[in-house]
Structures are given as C-alpha cells and as structure tokens.
Amino acid sequence: MKLYKEGFSKINRKGLFANKDIKNGTKIINYIGKIITKKQTDENPKFDNGKAIYLYNLNNRYDLDGDFKYNAARLINHSCNPNCEVRGKGLKLWISSIKDIKKGDELSYDYGFSFDKDFEDFPCKCRSKNCCGFIVREGSRWRIKKKKKTNK
Ligand SMILES: [Zn+2]
Predict the structure, then answer these.
(1) I need a surface site. Which of 1, 25, 42, 126 has the fewest CB within 10 A?
(2) DSSP letter at 142?
C-alpha cells in the first residue's frame, strides 16, 4: 500500500496526504524527474527567477527538474511547520517524514526559498500557528518580521 494519496488541499488546490499513520523518519515517496546539467538549467528561461519550485540541486554538475506529471511528489505543498523534508543521495531524491504523521494529514516540506526582493510574490497559506505569511526558508523568516517592523 502506498503511504500517500492525492487529495484536495486547503493550502494550494492539490496536495499529498498520508494514506496511513507514518512514523518519523520514513521514506514516503521518491522525488523523480529529469536530471539536467547546470548549463541546461542556466539556459532554460523557466528557471530564471531562482525560485523554481521543482528544481533541485543534486551536485556541482547536475540538477533535477521535477516539473513532470509523473512526479507525484511535486504536489506536496510548502508549510512553515512541515512534517517532511527532501533527502538525497547521489542523484536520487526522496521525501521523508520528520515527525510522526497521522493518516489523513497533509504532507508538506519547507521549499527553502531564500528571502529576497520577490518574497512577497510567494504567499504561504499553510495555516500553521507559526506561518510567516510567505514561502521563505525557516532560517530566513526573521527577516520578514524585521522588515514589517521597519515599515511601521
Ligand atoms: Zn506558512
């Protein structure tokens, strides 16, 4: 039985949900796509803004473009309080749980976007208690609070 299933998400239309109770540290789904060279990434305008949600750095030479229908893992939404993370080894990526997940809970991970001038173009609707309002990696979220304060 698969550990996940597609469903309607309040975060962003579609999402993936736990199909059964999942223990912390479980490999849930492979993150698959096309392995491309850094050169191909640089030359493809679709990756221009540096926030290609489905693009992953594999090593110095290769990226993985997961923007394909067959990659079900791409439906997993960002959350400020995620229950999964992306892990990798060699040229393989997968999604693992980072806490115990109950059957029916939506799967999520931190997209890891940097805080930059475009951060407001990526609002977050994860509804977690600690939601910072935007899709920005955990380590940079304090910058949003700081910005809000200086604007007052
Ligand atoms: Zn959020």
Answers:
(1) 1
(2) H
Domain residue ranges of the chain, discontinuous segments joined by +: 4-112
Q: Give how far Cα 14 sits from Cα of 17, 67, 108, Å.
A: 10, 15, 12
Quick one: how far is CA 21 from the chain centroid? 21
d(CA 64, CA 37): 8
In this prediction the pTM is 0.91
Q: Distance from the CA of 37 to the center of ligand 1, in angstroms?
A: 32
Other CB atoms within 10 A of residue 138 CB: 13
**Has domain 4-112 been given CATH number 2.170.270.10?**
yes
How remote is the CA of residue 62 from the centroid of ligand 1, in Å?
30
Q: What angle (nearest 5°) sits at the alpha carbon of residue 125, between those of residues 121 and 129?
A: 125
Question: In sequence order, what are the residues at sequence separation of 6 or more whose Cβ sits closer than 8 angstroms to the Cβ of residue 13?
Answer: none
Segment 8-40, tens digit of pLDDT: 998 888 999 999 999 999 999 999 999 999 999
What's phi and psi for 149, nearest 5 deg?
-65, -45
